[in-house]
Amino acid sequence: MSTVDLLNTSNEKVGQIELNADVFDVKVKEHLLHDVVRMQRAAKRSGNSCTKTRTEVRGGGAKPWRQKGTGRARAGTRNSPLWRGGGVTFGPKPRDYSFKLNRKVKKQALAMAMSARLQEGNLVVVDDFVMDAIKTKDFVGIMKGFDFENCLIITEQSNENVNKSSRNANGFKVLTVDGVNVYDILLHKKLMLVKPAVESLEKRLTA
Description:
Blueprint: E1 2-7, E2 13-19, H1 21-24, H2 30-44, H3 103-120, E3 123-126, H4 136-145, E4 151-155, H5 160-166, E5 172-176, H6 182-187, E6 190-194, H7 195-206
Parallel strand pairs: 1-3, 3-6, 4-5, 4-6
Antiparallel strand pairs: 1-2
Helix pairs in contact: 4-5
């Protein structure tokens, strides 16, 4: 078990909390994190680039010139990839770039990502994160209190005021436990966990 300070949104210590070692004290394997990030980014690729082959290009029904006697190379169609305006040889077609990894691997990588942030001293736990109104200025003020310029905040449940207040704050993102992922954790230098989210994450990753 790792014990860390429990803070409020004013960056004041209000207690301590024990973190499960199976989730927050895991040996980090960079190649595993790399595989999971690669999987996430591959799944986001649209894969909609498309070129026409010689059979899909319009025209080309008539032979451009007779086979013999012109002194030029023989040609059967204007759709040839050798001609300007012709088809493309081995060009890209719509495809799915996604690939799968085992569920255990993904869970392990998520624990590694959070362990890495804790080991770096870039993880904080707050007792609660609630805002009375949608105001980006107030959200930025809270982050300045922690001296954070780049941070991922993980909450137990979605909070409209917090979500909308963080939208226009560059470098910050708010996710619920259901949406937490390796890529976003590694993308942000700091990680802030709300206490109820810690319990949910531990239950999810140790089940």
